[in-house]
Amino acid sequence: MATIKTQLVVFDFDWSMADQDTDRWIFEVLAPDIRRKMKTLKESIQWTDLIAQSLQEIHARGRTREEIEHTLRQMPFHPAMVRGVTNLKGASNPSTTFFCLSNANSVFINTILESKGLQNLFEEIVTNPAEFDPSGLLKLRRRVDPDGPQHSCTVGCSPNMCKGEELAAFLERHKPGYDRIIYVGDGSNDFCPILRLRSQDMVLCRRFRGLEGRISREGGQQCQVKYWAGAWEVEEIFNQFIEKN
Ligand SMILES: [Mg+2]
Ligand SMILES: [Zn+2]
Question: Which residues form the active site (predicted)?
Fold first, then answer.
């Protein structure tokens, strides 16, 4: 294989970088009855819209911005993941750029990254936009505005965002690109972007979740596939990238 001088690490967030799902965690901790209701409604309401609506409900109950932020900081996040990405970013050969591609939202992701000292890790974070209004309501919108032009994904991405199209757009913004792309993901919506990876690229697929099933049932990806279950194994793989050079 040709020498790798530049690489891009693309991270899904929930259950990939973090060891939990932000959308569900918030309600499991602050309002389990709403969490239960989400299970019932998720077939009939688009997921991002359902989270936006559920955030309005907990705000109406008097749950504060501080409670939401505190709950996010408490969410499981493996120390080996912090070490692994920090060491890889600090290494100069190869030089590594990090890109976050997530169906969570900007407030959830940034709050957690800051609490881990990782606020400068990512070159870009592409996700659903969110912000607290002055009353403490967390206002969340889809990345792709439902009233504007929609994405044209045929692989099954949710209407709020096509991760494959977003990865292609990132690469278009960052020419001439990277010698290698490593995609870390777990969910069925991480299948679309990995179909765009090349033979020198790699997916680090978390076991026992939606992505593993789609790779085994549908296949068709050109990239190499490595499996992991615990964040310590991602750290181990990242360390091997550094040691080889
Ligand atoms: Mg995920
Ligand atoms: Zn897609």
Answer: 12, 14
**Domains located in the chain, CATH noted:** 6-19+78-128+143-243 (3.40.50.1000)
Full-model pTM: 0.97
Report the chain's terminal Cα–Cα distance, integer Å.
13
243 C-alpha to ligand 2 centroid (Å): 34
Whole-number Å distance, alpha carbon 161 to ligand 1 midpoint, is 14
Residue positions in the annotated binding site for Mg(2+)? 12, 14, 186
pLDDT over threshold 90, residue 120: yes
Q: Say if residue 243's pLDDT is above 80.
A: no
| Token output for 149 | 């032009």
What is the number of the ligand closest to the CA of 159?
Answer: 2
Q: Any bridge partners for residue 180, and if so which?
A: 7
Residue 12 is among the residues annotated as catalytic for this protein: yes
- Six token digits for residue 182: 């490593």
Q: Are the beta carbons of 3 and 12 closer than 8 angstroms?
A: no
Q: Which two tokens stand for residue 178?
A: 């990277």
